[in-house]
Each structure stands twice: as structure tokens, then as C-alpha cells.
Amino acid sequence: MSKALGTALVGGGTGFIGSHLCKVLKSHGYGVIVISRMPGPQRMTWNDLNRQGLPDGTTTVINLAGQNVLDFKQRWNAGFKQNVFNSRINTTSSLANAIVSAKKKPSVFVTLTGVGIYKPDKVKEYDEDSSETEFDFLSRLCHEWENAAKLPKGTSTRQVTIRSGVVLGRDGGMIKQLYLPFFCGLGGPVMPGDQYLPWIHIDDLIRLILFVVGNQQVEGTLNGVAPQNITNKQFSDVCLSNLFEPVFIKIFRLLLVP
Ligand SMILES: NC(=O)c1ccc[n+]([C@@H]2O[C@H](COP(=O)([O-])OP(=O)(O)OC[C@H]3O[C@@H](n4cnc5c(N)ncnc54)[C@H](OP(=O)(O)O)[C@@H]3O)[C@@H](O)[C@H]2O)c1
């Protein structure tokens, strides 16, 4: 483990965002331990965390764990919603409790929640100081999630919450889920299509997390979104025209191009 930067403990470090982040943290000189439901090398389980607390030398704690909500094969029934809820709240509060109990506190605790905390609005622009009220399942989830992360006043650990837009990257998240339908020419906007889709590219999000971790003056809530506002329809059109093409065009091309 790196002595200078210490150990970064990453909940959900096996996932789409987590695996990108862990690679970059290692390349910057952090020792990385992933918290996963499955034991393995350079990993601990959530049970280990609850029993043993933070590993010695932990300087940085980041939570990226949570049941995937972008899996379109899943039905949003009560059981799935409970899983979505518990997987975020329980992991986040386990980390917050471990920080509170630690004799030597980490320098920073970062949680990644979502812009789902803000009520979609075609006119209103939100920033980090906008007030939010709970209005649906996702906004309630984000509120509870951020509450679960809150450390008691006076804790020396710096705390940052990043409210992320939809994270775009080829190997995970929304793009991975949409790849097959768009590849087959079956993709399209979620109707009516004029709703905004706040987004961020995976590389920018990783840079943002790294910036947050490394800069002691950054504290509180940040919105992690690209500056360009796009609608769901614009996003689908870009996917169709730039990334994918209908399957009959692919076949046509295969037949014509030797
Ligand atoms: N991707 C996005 O567009 C986006 C946008 C805003 C916020 N976020 C948030 O960022 C975090 C990471 O997103 P991601 O796209 O990287 O997700 P992901 O690829 O699905 O990875 C999440 C990780 O969470 C763990 N996990 C899954 N189900 C769990 C459960 N029931 N209980 C405990 N742990 C569970 C898994 O790790 P193990 O199998 O190793 O336990 C998994 O690798 C999530 O909390 C998500 O809500 C994502």
C-alpha cells in the first residue's frame, strides 16, 4: 500500500464506475481495497467492514455500491425497489458508522448519489444550492441516501456528495443497456422525449472524484453533470446516428462491401 496517499476504500469498486475509479486511483499511487459482497484478493466484504471497521491506513472512503437501476430487464416491483433502497442506504450507513468508530479518521468520505433528487423541470435550472423536496421514489431514495452518509458535526473527515447525472461510457451504465436495442435499430427516446437527460462522461466523473479526493478545500454537495443540456430525444438521435445503425443497414453493408 502507498504510504504517502494511504488506502482508498471503495464500496462497489467492482462496478462500472468503481472499476474505472480503482484503476485510476492505483495509477495515482493509492492502495485500493474494494468492499464487495463477494470476498477476494484486495477486497473486504460488508460483513468484514461491520465487524472489523476501516482497514488500517485508510485515508479515503468512497461509496459506489448499489443495485443497478438501469437494468431494463428488472421489473420495478416492491421487492426490487426495496433492494435498490437497502443496497445504497445500508452500505452508506455502514461506511459512515465505520468512520465514526475509527480511532484514526480518514481524510475524506465521498458518496455518489444522483440528480434524481431534483424535480424534472423544463424551465428551472438547478445548482448545488437549489432546495429539493421529495416527490417520487428516486428523490426519496436520494434524500435517505444523503442522510445515511451524514457524519456527526465535528467529525474531522471531510465530506463530499456528488449528485451525478447518467454516466455515459462504452463499457457500462446506460450505454451498455441500450447497446442491443439500438444495434438492432429498435432504440428510441423514452416518450415524450422532451424531458432533460443530465449526463456526464465516465472519464469526467472519474476526474471529478479524483479532484474532490485530492483538494482539501472541496466540501459539501456538487452536481456532477456536463454543461450541455440535452433532451432524451436528442440523446436517442445521437445514439442512432453516431453510435449505432439499424441492423438491416449493417447486413446491407456486409453484403455490399467485400
Ligand atoms: N451509472 C450511472 O449512470 C449512475 C448515475 C448516478 C449515480 N450512480 C450511482 O453510482 C453507484 C455506482 O454505479 P455503477 O453504474 O457503477 O453501478 P454498477 O455497475 O451496477 O455497480 C454497483 C456495484 O454495487 C454492488 N451492488 C450491486 N447490488 C448490490 C446490493 N444489492 N447490495 C450491495 N451492493 C450491491 C456491486 O458490487 P459487488 O457485486 O462487488 O458487491 C456492483 O458492482 C450506484 O450507487 C449508482 O446508483 C450511477
From TrEMBL:
Q: Where is the NAD-dependent epimerase/dehydratase domain?
A: 8-215
Please report the organism this UniProt entry assigns to the protein.
Tenebrio molitor (Yellow mealworm beetle)
Gene3D superfamilies on file: NAD(P)-binding Rossmann-like Domain (3.40.50.720)
The record's section on Pfam families has: Epimerase
Q: What is this protein called?
A: NAD-dependent epimerase/dehydratase domain-containing protein
